[in-house]
Amino acid sequence: MSNQTKDRLISTTKFAYGAAVGLFGMLVLKYPDCAIFHDVPENIPRIKGFPLIGSIIQEVANYEKYYGSQHEQFTKLNTLTMVTSAVGLPLTITTIDPKNIEHFLRVNFSNYVKSDHFRTSLKGLFGHSIVLSEGHRWAYHRKAAVRIFSTKRLEDYFAHVIVTELNVMVKKVLDNYALDGAIIDLQDLFLKYTMDSFVMIAFGKNLNTLTSKEVVPVSESFDKCVQHVFNMSTNPFTPIIDKFNNVFRGPQTKSINQHYDTLNDFAYTIIAERKDDLKNGHSFNDLLSVAMEQGNESGEEFSDEDLRDLIVSSIVAARDANAAALSWGLLCIIQHPEVQVKLLQEIENYLPENKNDQQQQPLLFYEILRLYPPATVNFRDALNDDVWPDGTKIRKGNTVSINLYAQARSPKVWGDDCNEFKPERWLQPDGRLRHESQAKWPIFNVSPRACIGQNLATLESITAIVTLVQRYKFSLVPNQNFEYSVSLVMAMKHGLKVHVQNREN
Ligand code: HEM
């Protein structure tokens, strides 16, 4: 190479280097504390991050404490609405202000949809069901689901199954632990109880996970698939991890695809059997049969795929959330003996003709869910520009979210005693039950997309809590750490280990 060419190459390299440094400097000036290419609205409070990457380091470091770390950020910024800019994640505006929540989940509902990423990640489990649908398809599913869920025959069957399975949990499991004094993990027990009850309600099949000594394959596959769709929605490396796990798994370990197959085979086999049984004149009261008989909104039969999606997504929507509500609920009750005393008095004074006098039970349940909301966060994408009641400007494509854990712990929303477990906050001065707006207590989301199973969840949880408190004294195994885990629902990371004693002893 001649000296002239060499000089030209060096000066070109220097120029390219200088241009790159200049460009980098310009980008750093333009995005000094937020993610590159994020058009961060200046009027919304935020925790500032690093040039070009924004707050991704804080986000990753706090991932396992996501709910609480957002609560700390709201407190630090002294705000009810904030924005997060982190490279690799969408620009997200999070609010705990009931006015804003009312606006984007109800008033301007059609402008906010579940993101494509979320829908793709969860599709393996929820299919094309109501949970992931939007627009006309959602409205169509919703009408059918509301009609099916409010069938009197199905409501009676719900109550029957809940009481039957509760009886199994009490007589076949807890009574034995009360006799031998061994430690039991209540969260694990409640997951089995809700699994058995909701599979029975949905498919009319008894999985017997409560009494089985072995792991029940379908139940295990449900768990694996729930965890997998959550990983898909939060960790971009999940497909690579799946491939790796598939290659290096032991001969007895199923791949994630095999777990999905187990779940789908289970569902499609029951659907096929049920079709035959119905043809042969048998009658059933479960969700599957009622859905088959009622058909869709146009009066046509549901396809097998529609039935699978309806049933499987109802089980997933119901099972983990209810088990979480029961686990946190029992923890609150064990930690507050005065609440137990009131509940026991109420049970003792209960007269069937005075059903409306039963105040403690709904108060308790509302307060448990306020402090420990099972569906803790909720995300939507804005289809068009919008302005929220507090003046926050939303741009087309922004992600918006709510954090119910932070909302419950905000003195601006729930008063100075917000962190206390106080069921009586749900009483009005005249002693009647206080009904808060859905936007201030969006545990079951906000209409028009409110949870279809709210009454069922309330019935199941209250029945279980009353039965357990009436029958047993629970004491916590010492030195437990009651951290939450961040997943599709907020469960207890290390379970809830207790000793059980019969009350009459
Ligand atoms: C404590 C228990 C429960 C909690 C906290 C809960 C919470 C929620 C929330 C927050 C949503 C809205 C999700 C969203 O659109 O992003 C929802 C939707 C839904 N829930 Fe529940 N749920 C519970 C139990 C149940 C039960 C027992 C069932 C039925 C068996 C059920 C069935 C559904 C269905 C079908 C939807 C979809 C509604 C729609 O998209 O229009 N849930 N639930």
TrEMBL record:
Gene3D superfamilies linked: Cytochrome P450
Cofactor: heme
The keyword Heme is annotated on this UniProt entry: yes
Signal peptide: none
SUPFAM superfamilies: Cytochrome P450
Keyword Glycoprotein: no
Record: residues binding heme: C451
GO MF entries: heme binding; iron ion binding; monooxygenase activity; oxidoreductase activity, acting on paired donors, with incorporation or reduction of molecular oxygen
Protein keywords: Heme, Iron, Metal-binding, Oxidoreductase
Cross-referenced Pfam families: p450
Sequence similarity: Belongs to the cytochrome P450 family.
Protein name according to UniProt: Cytochrome P450
Lineage of the organism: Eukaryota, Fungi, Fungi incertae sedis, Mucoromycota, Mucoromycotina
